[in-house]
Structure formats: structure tokens, C-alpha cells
Recover the amino acids of this structure.
């Protein structure tokens, strides 16, 4: 018996719908989320179903949206706000870093902020400039923010439910290039906790570590490698913060080789963090240096060049090739 | 702040009414100049149509049309001198073209070849801004630098009604007023920010009324009325050039098409609403006026249309041409 | 939940066998390099260092005791 | 937007003039209520003095004094009901104390023990905001949530003249107006943002005039005039509670001391300027009025002073006490 | 013959003065920089000397300041702007990330932005919340920004001159706790190029890698270690972007052991990047995993707790102790 197929946009929509229906304090707002249902239709139908008090459009101001969410959370609500695109969350950066992330700590837990900031993020959609940033490092580096990046539609549903249920703020990164891909999603499967990575593919020879939009790319690379006789495993982080060292390191210790795959520019990135932690925690197990396959340290390119920028199967396999196989079994 | 000033910020100035009649007390340029304006309107309209077609053919990734706003597009460019600067948004392709930049270069962005396809410095046209309202501050900077250098440059900074809600709009207006920077802030109030109607953006008596809070003059003008726009914007440019500082001008206009081709306006507005705006078409009233004034006959119209067709053909050819993209550009000019 | 692999590699496995994907001989990178340069197979060694880590000495004595070679 | 509304946003409302005389047409609360206001003013002044002394003794790291602004500090707290919220800045220690929070708890921040020393929810007082204007948006959020929940809570949101230049000020005013959120924005225009004078901050006819651009009422009031403040703020609170939305109130006041003890105001303003403001002292005029009205005699003054001294002693003791800090707190409540 | 002693604030002041005097297009602006000379007095006297057209106060709005700088740079000027404190640069984040960093690339070099964004940064001054953030990762992760962090007063002078001379934007991070420490500064010594690290102390046993405010701490740790018989070297990065792999790796390859020291929270930080690159580039030379001694992943604490947060000599030496000395030569 298979679960119904839905797109990631539909899975997120379902998570929002279920959360709003179950909990009176959940409110959804942002730019174009109500009448239009969001530019990606992620909030489609929610305004019609739940009305203006639960789902509403705001004036066009991201700092305003996040700042208002802080206040609403201070007054007992669970705001789920949408930033229309990754780069358009930057106007809200001060609110996110100086308030959303810190208020719980600043007040010794007296004020907690159950806010979810949903960000359609990353590239691969042929978008013009400012529409394809992978901005996770900015949030992951900021103490106080839980940062989640689902790679599957089922995870998008389950992790968003968990994010909304969290008493503390969560930045929820939605790989926009997956919004319209269909997968089976069984919403009755218990919500997996935030903070657990998952081994998407077992592999003996090396471990690919990825999250969000890079997971399917890593899986495709592993597929390809298999045809060439190399058995690669794939770990999907699911959440960047908290980071699941246990799952990641168990895999790398088994294979002795790791490649981190992420779309964001590599310098001082989440990929750097993964390479650093794996290097530190799996030191004696490493047969080769941990490689990173990331976006280049350049602005996100225009549509016609984006395939050069994005980590693809070829670049991943090239990196795998450098893992010092000469002294492998 | 007098009652008259307040009124000017709230009641739209008009020159030609919807039937092409001169509004009482208003003046319009002499017919020859207005014919030139009409020519530009026709070009702008044709460009909008051509780009729409190119999107449908898959030759452009996306196009935010300024159909219905052509008078704004033409006026904001025509009031500028050569050394002045224009700061446009994604919706202002026609204004950039009206300023003299080859539309094919402008469309580089929407074709996906590169981010900015023209040389901003050569044309004194900033790259089309996507992050809303951010460019207004750049406009203030260019203007302030010009003043420090003793140049009489004026900067025309464009944004939409939605963008006025952003913090950067506020900071830009305030900086300009405090530094008496020679900037004209030109808000094309086309009533929507994607799906969000003006009423959710502001409950002020007008967007131009925001000028009061910055201590600068604010004017509201019929945004489908080319002569009125040229007059109000022209006066603002003259004030700026004369060292009298910035002005906020709001054009009362309407976005006839969807936000972009990717948008479906029927989800948030009625056809009736759109239909109401059609008779207010910015081309129509100038055409009727010129026809009645005897300055535009079939022959001249035919010439104008032919020239616009030529431009459209060049755009088709240019956008259709197979321009190579260089992956090396990815790494160029980053640091 | 996925089946998790052992968190830590087996410590000083009594009879190390070449079983890629299930066991990685523990050694710091320069020791690995030394082993490679000297043609020593780490899978054939038992580490004498803490937690079974193969040391330089382990590698060097493997060279002087060719019996350990495969 | 009428001429009268414009005037109210530009000309400061007054009740008591600098000599303690009732301004023509104005009314003040009955003497007993005003004595209570006077008591609070004395407390606020004493708290400012005490904190200054604690800084000089090295017991507080820093203190931004509200000396000269005590009428604002008292009024904004006294017009609120218990369930209402106050959103203060670093300069509003006296206002928080006037709301009933133990000053020692408030001073936790400036003592360096922890960031926020009181329970915001218990007192309905947000943590003191340092990143300028950011808290105004939180205030709007609290207010909007209250409205959605059907509660009649009002939120008083404080900021300075400098903070009005920040984008967040703009976004907060606009959100509040659009959502008709029950917020009173209260700008203490003390003429300086650290060293930067008002003229570099804004060239608008007043800061309250900014209200026009948001479609909300704006009022300017003498910021050293307690009854006038209580009236204007009280009316704003009543409007908000009655569902009529936000109001922007600007108090015309002056920062008598340096920005903080770490600042040296002599670098950017003259003693003469300060001296000019001294006769406009907010305590003086209430005292004179009450004395003349026979509602305040030596005995009562003496009682008030004694009570203020008691408060000061408690602050000294509390701040002086050796409270242990727990390094474990570093890691608590982060995620 | 010794050079005159000056504080870091004075060295920066001298660099600004010399740059303004030499080049008509240099302008200095921000909050309180003119009449007051800045809250740290870094711009002291410049307004009086050069007048309102060269040095001026702005309204209080950081996005405004940076946005205006973009425009002024587009029109031929070299703006040097001050953000009053690290956390108060966040309102300008969108301008920095979406414009300052990208405009050169977006216009294929047609528009270049010779902007310097000066940020008094990091902690150790007993400042209240929002006054002590180490925000370098946000900038270093953003392609298009050169990120400089001087550790000495002479470098503060020389690197700032180089930053102002750069045709492209530079984020200049001034360790505020050093503003008032005196050192000899010889301004006639040629300006060192941005992008070169320097070995501040030669050491045989392990290499400490630091920048900005952490360099003196690393040096103190090395001092202390020497008394305990351990010879630690110290590399001062001077610039984070560009990163001087050559100098750093040469040292680590020599010692085989490295500890990265930085104040910022460690997750997805510059320290992560350094650990990741060193792990990758010096793999076969590493006798021990690269350790990181950083701020914790928590908001910057209040004054009375900051010494627990900051990487100090003890924490550095503890990390050094874990560098697997048991099989050292
Ligand atoms: C900072 C920012 N936030 C969000 C967006 C996404 N967005 C693009 S256009 C638009 C609506 C803009 O409306 P308006 O300013 O009225 O201009 P119009 O499109 O009507 O010309 C939005 C929300 C953006 N480009 N930048
Ligand atoms: C976003 C931000 N930028 C800069 C600062 C540094 N700063 C602290 S107080 C201040 C001046 C504020 O002036 P004003 O708003 O008039 O309030 P006042 O101090 O006069 O009460 C500045 C610039 C800050 N706290 N936050
Ligand atoms: Mg619009
Ligand atoms: Mg902003
Ligand atoms: Mg002030």
C-alpha cells in the first residue's frame, strides 16, 4: 500500500494546514502568501480555508515580517513566516541574528520564540540574480538558530511539523528546485525529530555527506559510481543545526573516505564545518583528506551558467577520484 | 507645509483627460514635442509586446511588463539630461530603452546570459534592481557624490508602490532630504506588489504624502498622462539641478498585465478592475489629442508604427541570436 | 530509522582482515603515507598505539619483519 | 488630513509652561493625581542620579541617563494599564521602574551580570532594546497578536529621534497603520543621537509629521510637560484600545547629560545650549504649579524625597550586592 | 632608531588622514564620525582638518550608509564608512551581500566599488550585548568581499591604506579591544599587500593560526608553552579573504600540528574553514587532528561572563595538549 504522491510544495502545504488546524496559535504570514498562495503556491488555499486571522499578507518588508513575528511569538503565537526568496531574507538579517536567535538566551528562557522562518532557497531553477542564494551558512553560524534543510518531500512534511512544534526558532530551508517534484509522502508516519541525519544509501568505499538540494545529486553520483564499481554511501543531514555527528562519523569511520557536497560557496561554509568536524572526529580513520564539492566562491551566476556553478555528478565523482585510492584495498 | 502642498501630494495632477482633452488650467508641450513623446510611447508599448512574445517563445526566461505604465517609462527618461542618472528596476526595461540603451543589451538579464548587459557608466543607467528599494540608496549616493564634486547631475530613482514599504525606501528618502541630494524619487504606483494590493501596503492618503515626513516636496500625478508626468518630473529635475534637493513623485497608474508571465493575476484581481483601467490607456489620450490637434495623421502614425516594428525586429533578432556565454565570466571580477 | 554503523571502529581487532567498508585501520595520515612509501599494508597490522592506532614503529617493524607482509 | 491635524503634528501641545502656569485652554489632572505624577518624577530623577553615581563608583559599566526626560519616562508608563506592554530602550530605565519593575533587576544589563534581568512577560515590559528601532516591530507584533486574540492590550513603543532614521522605524509604523495595531509610538526627541544633532537626522517639519506618511495620527507634545504628555499619550492609548489603531507621538525634550557616562558632550554641543534647557526642567514646572495650587507643601515634599532616598538606597544595596554569576548560563536557553 | 608609538586607533586615524590627504576621492562617513570623531575616536580631528565634504555624519541608518557608499563609489569616490559596532552592521547586510559584494561581477567589472567598510569588532571590552560580535564569517563566506583583520597597529595602518587603495570592496575588521594599546608604528614602511599572512613566531612543535584579536592571545599562549618546554609557532593571517594557504600550510607541514584560534562561535566559521583547508592541504603531514579553539556556539555573553567565552591561553594550551604528543619525535 503506497502513500499518496505529492510535490514538496504540497507536502509543505499539508504540514502548514495540519499545524494551523491543530494549534490555534499557529499563524502564517509574509508577502503574497494569502490571496495568491505564495509565488510557489506553497501556501495555496490556506487563506481561503482558515481566514485572514490565521493566514495573511503583509506589507512588503522582510525586517518588518520577522520583527512582527518576534512580537507575535512574545505574545503567545507560533508565527510561520515566509521569506519570498533566499536573498530577500537579507533585509531581515538584523532581526534574525540579534533578536530571533538570541531572545531566549537574553532573557534566560523567560521569553522563548517558537518562530519558523521558511526560506525557499538554493538554485537550479534558472532564476535571475538574487533568486538562488544558498544562505544556510549565515544562519548556521548564528548561535540560537536551528537550521533545517529537508531533501525529501516526506522530510519536508515531518520536519516542518517538528519545526512548528519547536519552542525555539527554526530556519527552514526549502530547496526550491524540488518544489514541484513528486514523491510518496505518508503524513501518518511519526514526525522524525530534528537533529537526526539519515543514511540514504549504504556504501562501503566512501561517504558522501549532503543536505537539502544536494542529497539527490549525491545519490545520483553514487548511482553513477556504482556502475563504475565504486560503492558510495550518502548521508542526508536533514538538519544542519543541530548537527548529527554520530551518524555522520559512524559512516565515515566505516569507509575512511568522505566528500561533502553543498551548493553554497565553500569558504567558511557549512561544508567547511562538516569537513573540519569530520577531520577532527574521524582523524585516524581517514584514508584521504575530506574533499568538498561546493559552489564556487563567486556570486550565483546567471541561468545560462548555473550548471557550471552547481556541484554536479561529475564534480562529485572527480572529487571521489582524488580520495587516494591507490592504497585502497 | 501648506494646505496647497498637501493637496499636491494627494490629488493627482493631470494635463490630458481620458478622452484626450486638455484639462482646465493645464498646458501641454507643443504638438511636435508631443508627437515625439507619442513615438516613444508607441516604442515602449511595442517593446512590452515584443518581450511578452519572446517569453512565450521561450527566448526570455521572464518578463515583467510595464504595459499600462508606458507614460511613466517614457517621461522619467525624457526629462533627464545626458549626464543624469537613471536607477531602474526589473520592470523598467522600456524606460531604459527610452533613455537610449539598446533593448537587446537590457534583456541580457532576462535572457539569463548575464546579470547586467549594458555598461551602467556609459549610459548613466544603473543595473536593473531586483532587491526592492535598495537601489534608491545608490541613487542618493550618486547624487551626493555629484554634488560634492560640484557637478549638476540629477538622479532619477524608480520604484514601485510595494517597495515604498521597505526600510531602504525610508532611509533613501531621508538621506536625500538631509543631504539635499539631487534625486527625484519616482514611485510608479501600479496598485499591486505582485498580488498584494495597495491597501495592504499603505493606508496613507497617498504615497507622495510620505514626502512630508522627510521634509521634501511630494507630488501625485496621473501616471497615464504623459504631459502631466513630464511636467511634474521635469520640475522636480529642475529643482534638483538648482540645488533645491529631492522630490518624491507618485504616479497613479496600473499594471495591466500580470506581475510577470509567471504570475496569474486572476488569483487576486477581477477582470472588471482591469477593464476599468483600459480606457485610461496612456497612448490613447495622447493620440486622440494629437489627432484632434492635427499633429498626427495616418501617414505619420504609419511611420511611427513602422519604426517601432523595426525596433521590435531588431530585438527579436538580437535576443534570438546565439550569443555564446563564457563560463570563465563566473570567476571574473569577483575580487 | 536507518541502521547505524558502529560508532567507533573495533579496537585492536584480533585478526584484522581486509574488509573495506566495515573496518578501517587506524593511523594518522603521515603514518599512512609512510606505510604506502614502504609498501606496508595497514590492514595487515595491529596497532600498538592508544585505541589500536597503528604507529610509525608498527609500520617500520613491519618492514623489518617481512613475515607480516601479505 | 486636515490643517488642524497637520498643526497638531508640528506644534507641541502644552499644559504647563516653564513657570508652572497653566497654558490657556489646557487642563491638568486634579492636584492629587498630579502630586502622584510629581512623586514619580522625583523618583525618576533620583534614579538617574543614583545610577550616575554607581557608574562613577564603577558599580555599573555604563548608564544612559534620561535626566531632563523624566516627564516622558513617567508619562509613558503611567498611561498604561496592567495588561499593556512597554517596549523600552537602553535609555528608559526610569520608565521601566515607573512601570513597577525593581530598578535593580533592570540594572542587571548595565551591571554586566546578564542581558535582561527582569521577566518581560511578568511585567509586560520587553527587554531594553539596544539595536535601534528593532523593538518597534516587536511591539507591533505583540499588539497585532493581542488583536487577533481579541484582547484589548495596548503597546507603548519607545525610541529616540535618531532611531526614526532606521528602516525598522518605517516598517514598524507602516505595519502598525496597515494592521491598525494598538501601538503608541513614542519618540523622545532629545535632539541628539549621541553626537549627531536633529538637523542631521531629519529636515521634516517635525518627527510627528512622519505619521502622515503612514496614515496615522501624529502629535507633537512638550516633552518636559508631564500633564500634556499624559493627556496626549493617554488619548493615544485610548484610541488604540478602542480599535482606532496606532498613533505617533513626538516629545520635544532634551538630553541634559552626555549620551552615556562614556560620552563627552562638550565635543559636539555648547554649555549654553544645555543651559537654555535647564529652566524647562520637567520637575520644576509641576512643582511650582502644585506649590501654587497648595497641593504640595514642605512636609509632603520631604516625604516624597525621603521615599526617593529609600528607593536609591535599595538600588545602591541591590547593585552593590555580590550576586554570583553562573557560567553555565552561557549555554542555557540557546537552543 | 625606533618609530613613534601609537595606539591602534591612532594608527587607523593616521591611515585615514593620509589617504584623505593623498586622494581627493576618499570620503569618510558614518554615525558620529565627524564632530565627535567616532565613539572610539578613530576619526578624531579628520572633520576639523578636511571639512564636511570629506568627513561627515549621516542620519542613523546603516543600510543607508552602505547603500549611499555604493552610489558614491559608482560616481567616482572611495567611501570609507564606519559601522559603529559589529552587530550594528547587520541592518546593512542586504546592501553588503547583494550589492557591495556583487556589483563588480554583476556588471562584468564595468562598475567597481572601492568601498571600505570599517567595523570595530569582537569582544574583550566588557561591552553590553550587541557590542562584541565577531561577525567575520558572514563576510568571509560572501564571495566578492575582501576581509581584512589586522592584529598589530602597524598592520592596521598598512592594511587600511591598502584597503582604501583597493579598487574593490574591503571589509576591514578592527579588533576594538586593541584600539587603545600602544605599539611602535613606522608609517614609512611600505604598505604590505593584502593577502599575505605572516609568521609572528617561529615554532617547531605546533602551529597556532589566528587573526585579529586572537593573535596576541595566541602569542601569549606560545610564550606560556615555551616555559613548559613546548615550542609553538604563531601565524597571523592578516587577511581572511584572500586566504594565504602558502604561508599557513608551510608552517603546518613543518610542525605537523595545528590549532586554530578565533573568537567567533565555531560552527560554520572562519576557524572551520581554516581547519578544513589545512586538513585537506596538509593531510599527510598532520600528526594530530587540527583543533579549533573558538567562542562557543552561544550568543556573546554579558561582561561578567565574557572571559569564559573568549579563547584564552588556558583553552589554547589545553587544545595543544590534545595534539597526540605521545608519538611525537
Ligand atoms: C527585498 C525584496 N523582497 C521581495 C522581493 C520579491 N518581489 C519581486 S517584485 C515584488 C513586488 C514589488 O512590487 P512593487 O514595488 O509595487 O513593484 P511592481 O512589481 O508593481 O512594479 C516582490 C515582492 C524582492 N525582489 N526584493
Ligand atoms: C542599529 C544600531 N545602530 C547604532 C547603534 C549605536 N547607538 C547607540 S545609541 C545611538 C544613538 C541613538 O540616538 P536616539 O535614537 O536619538 O536615542 P537617544 O540615545 O538620544 O535616547 C547609537 C548610534 C545602535 N545601538 N543600534
Ligand atoms: Mg506595484
Ligand atoms: Mg532595513
Ligand atoms: Mg536622541
Amino acid at each position: 500500500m503506497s502513500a499518496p504522491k505529492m510535490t514538496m510544495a504540497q507536502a509543505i502545504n499539508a504540514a502548514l494546514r495540519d499545524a494551523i488546524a491543530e494549534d490555534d496559535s499557529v499563524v502564517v504570514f509574509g508577502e503574497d502568501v494569502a490571496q495568491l498562495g505564495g509565488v510557489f503556491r506553497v501556501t495555496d488555499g490556506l487563506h481561503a480555508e482558515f481566514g485572514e486571522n490565521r493566514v495573511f499578507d503583509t506589507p512588503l518588508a522582510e525586517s518588518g515580517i520577522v520583527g512582527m513575528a518576534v512580537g507575535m511569538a512574545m505574545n503567545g503565537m507560533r508565527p510561520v513566516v515566509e521569506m519570498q526568496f533566499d536573498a530577500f531574507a537579507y533585509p531581515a538579517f538584523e532581526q534574525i541574528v540579534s533578536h530571533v536567535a538570541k531572545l531566549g538566551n537574553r532573557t534566560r528562557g523567560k521569553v522563548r520564540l517558537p518562530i519558523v522562518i521558511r526560506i525557499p532557497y538554493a538554485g537550479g531553477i534558472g532564476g535571475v540574480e538574487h533568486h538562488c542564494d544558498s544562505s544556510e551558512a549565515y544562519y548556521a553560524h548564528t548561535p540560537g538558530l536551528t537550521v533545517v534543510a529537508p531533501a525529501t518531500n516526506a522530510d519536508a512534511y515531518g520536519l516542518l511539523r517538528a519545526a512548528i512544534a519547536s519552542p525555539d526558532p527554526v530556519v527552514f530551508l526549502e530547496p526550491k528546485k524540488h518544489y514541484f517534484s513528486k514523491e510518496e509522502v505518508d503524513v501518518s508516519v511519526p514526525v522524525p525529530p530534528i537533529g537526526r541525519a539519515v543514511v540514504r544509501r549504504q556504501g562501503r568505499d566512501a561517504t558522501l555527506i549532503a543536505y537539502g538540494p544536494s542529497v539527490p545529486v549525491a545519490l545520483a553520483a553514487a548511482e553513477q559510481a556504482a556502475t563504475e564499481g565504486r560503492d558510495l554511501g550518502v548521508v542526508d543531514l536533514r538538519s544542519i543545526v543541530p548537527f548529527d555527528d554520530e551518524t555522520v562519523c559512524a559512516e565515515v569511520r566505516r569507509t575512511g573516505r568522505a566528500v561533502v557536497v553543498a551548493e553554497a560557496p565553500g569558504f567558511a561554509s557549512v561544508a567547511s564545518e562538516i569537513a573540519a568536524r569530520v577531520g577532527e572526529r574521524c582523524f585516524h580513520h581517514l584514508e584521504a583528506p575530506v574533499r568538498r564539492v561546493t559552489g564556487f566562491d563567486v556570486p550565483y551566476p546567471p541561468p545560462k551558467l548555473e550548471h557550471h556553478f552547481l556541484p554536479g555528478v561529475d564534480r562529485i565523482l572527480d572529487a571521489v577520484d582524488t580520495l587516494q585510492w591507490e592504497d585502497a584495498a | 507645509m501648506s494646505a496647497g502642498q498637501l493637496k499636491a501630494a494627494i490629488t493627482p495632477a493631470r494635463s490630458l483627460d481620458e478622452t484626450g482633452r486638455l484639462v482646465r488650467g493645464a498646458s501641454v508641450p507643443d504638438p511636435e514635442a508631443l508627437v515625439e513623446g507619442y513615438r516613444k510611447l508607441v516604442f515602449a508599448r511595442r517593446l512590452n509586446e515584443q518581450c511578452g512574445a519572446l517569453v512565450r517563445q521561450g527566448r526570455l526566461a521572464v518578463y515583467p511588463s510595464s504595459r499600462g505604465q508606458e507614460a511613466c517609462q517614457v517621461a522619467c527618461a525624457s526629462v533627464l539630461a545626458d549626464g543624469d542618472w537613471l536607477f531602474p528596476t526589473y520592470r523598467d526595461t522600456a524606460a531604459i530603452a527610452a533613455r537610449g540603451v539598446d533593448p537587446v543589451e537590457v534583456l541580457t538579464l532576462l535572457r539569463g546570459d548575464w546579470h547586467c548587459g549594458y555598461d551602467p557608466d556609459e549610459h548613466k543607467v544603473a543595473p536593473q534592481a531586483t532587491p526592492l528599494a535598495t537601489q534608491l540608496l545608490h541613487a542618493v549616493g550618486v547624487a551626493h557624490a555629484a554634488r560634492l564634486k560640484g557637478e549638476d547631475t540629477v538622479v532619477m530613482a524608480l520604484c514601485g508602490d510595494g517597495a515604498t514599504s521597505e526600510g531602504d525606501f525610508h532611509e533613501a528618502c531621508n538621506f536625500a532630504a538631509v543631504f539635499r541630494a539631487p534625486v527625484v524619487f519616482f514611485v510608479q504606483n501600479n496598485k499591486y506588489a505582485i498580488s498584494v494590493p495597495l491597501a495592504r501596503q499603505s493606508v496613507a492618503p497617498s504615497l507622495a504624502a510620505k514626502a512630508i515626513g522627510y521634509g521634501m516636496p511630494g507630488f501625485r500625478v496621473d501616471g497615464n498622462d504623459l504631459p502631466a508626468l513630464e511636467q511634474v518630473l521635469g520640475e522636480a529635475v529642475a529643482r534638483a539641478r538648482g540645488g533645491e534637493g529631492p522630490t518624491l513623485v507618485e504616479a497613479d497608474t496600473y499594471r495591466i498585465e500580470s506581475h510577470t508571465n509567471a504570475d496569474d493575476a486572476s488569483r487576486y484581481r477581477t477582470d472588471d478592475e482591469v477593464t476599468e483601467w483600459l480606457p485610461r490607456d496612456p497612448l490613447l489620450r495622447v493620440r486622440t489629442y494629437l489627432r484632434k490637434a492635427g499633429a498626427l495623421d495616418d501617414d505619420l502614425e504609419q511611420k511611427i508604427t513602422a519604426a517601432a516594428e523595426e525596433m521590435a525586429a531588431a530585438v527579436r533578432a538580437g535576443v534570438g541570436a546565439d550569443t555564446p556565454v563564457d563560463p570563465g565570466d563566473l570567476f571574473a571580477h569577483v575580487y | 530509522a536507518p541502521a547505524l554503523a558502529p560508532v567507533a571502529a573495533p579496537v585492536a581487532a584480533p585478526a584484522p582482515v581486509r574488509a573495506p567498508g566495515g573496518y578501517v585501520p587506524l593511523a594518522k595520515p603521515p603514518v599512512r603515507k609512510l606505510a604506502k612509501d614502504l609498501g606496508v599494508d595497514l590492514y595487515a597490522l595491529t596497532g600498538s598505539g592508544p585505541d589500536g592506532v597503528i604507529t610509525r614503529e608498527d609500520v617500520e617493524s613491519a618492514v623489518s619483519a617481512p613475515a607480516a607482509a601479505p
Summary: DSSP finds 14 helices and seven strands in chain D. The two ends of chain D are 48 Å apart (CA to CA). Chain D has a mean pLDDT of 97.
